[in-house]
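pinging the channel bc i need a second pair of eyes. not urgent but kinda urgent?? the chain im working w is below, pasted from the shared doc
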Amino acid sequence: MSEMENPKQIVEEREKEALEALTKENSVQGLTEWKNSFLSKKSPLMQLMSLMRQIPNELKAAYGKLVNDARNAVEKAFEEKMKKAQEEALKEKLEAERIDLTLPGRSYSQGSINPYWEIVDEMSDIFASMGFDIVEGRDVETDHFNFELLNVPKDHPARDMQDTFYLSDSLLLRTQTSAAQAHTMLENEEKKPIKMICPGKCYRRDDDDATHSHEFGQIEGLVVDKGISLADLKGTLELFVKKMFGEKRQIRLRSSFFPFTEPSVEVDVSCSKCGGKGCSLCKGTGWIEILGAGEVHPHVLEMCGYDPKIYSGFAFGVGVERIAMLRYGIDDIRRIYTNDVRFLKDFTEK
C-alpha cells in the first residue's frame, strides 16, 4: 500500500498525535479517558503492529522495534503524568478533609435507664435471690385465664374494678399478671412446689392522673406447696421491703378482699419521711400502702388442679410505678412514661 512507503513517518505521526493529546489532560478523569482512546487495543497507535504483514521481511525487525519504542515512550509519558495527577488529587482531598486538632472535643451526654426498668430489674433480682423463678406472661389473655380461673366469674362485681380493653368477646388485654399464675399451675402437671414471679404490663380503662394510668407495670408473685401459711407471706414481704427500702422499714398487714385470695390483706410499709410518726406524705398514719396479697383461694387451687386439702399457697401483686414513686420521690406517675430527658437526667444524677 502507498501509505506504507514510509513506515517510520506513520509511526512518528501517531506517536506525536498521542503525546500532543496527552499534554491537554491534567486530571485523573481526563487522563483515564485519554488512555481509553490512545492505549486501548483498537487505538491507532496500538494498531500499528497489525500492519506488520505489509512490511518487507528485511524491514520487519526494524519496524517492530520502532513501534515498540513509540508505544513505550507514550506509555511512560502517560504513567508519569497520571502519577502526578493522582498525587495532586490526593493532596486536594486531604486538604479538604483536614481535621483541625486544635478544636475542642465534642462531649456526649450519657443516657440512663428509665426508673420503671430499674425497679423491675431490682425487684426481679431480689426475688430471684429468694429462689423465685421469673415467668414471662402474655399481654393478650382469654377471659378464662384473666378472670374465671382467678375466681372472678362472669357478672362478678370485682370485674367493675378491672374494666379493660376487649379485643373480642373472649380476648382482652390482661388486667393483671395473675393470669400467668394460672398458666403456671395448670402446666405443672406433676404438681411440684411453685415459687414464681411474673413482671409485665397490665391494662385497665382508667383515668390518667398523677397516680393512675391506663397502662401500668405489675409484678405478681405466687408460692404453692404443702403447709404454706400467711406467716410465710409476711416473712417473704418483710425481706423484700428491707432489701428494697432499707433495713429500718417495717410492714403491716390489713384485712382486705380479693376474689382470688382468702384471707386477703393490704400491705403497708412504714413511711420513709417520718419513720412512722405521721406526716403529710403518709397522711398522718405513718404507713403507705404498697401492695395487695393473701392466701391463694381454695377454689383457685382446685380449678388449677391442686387439692386444697393438701396444698396451700400465697400470692401478691406489686405496682412497679408505685414502688418507683416511693423509692425515688417521683410526684407524678406520668413522668415515668413521657421519656422527658430532663426528668431522666435528674433521675440519673440522683
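so The first strand starts at residue 133 and ends at 134. and The mean pLDDT is 86. — does that match what u expected or am i reading it wrong
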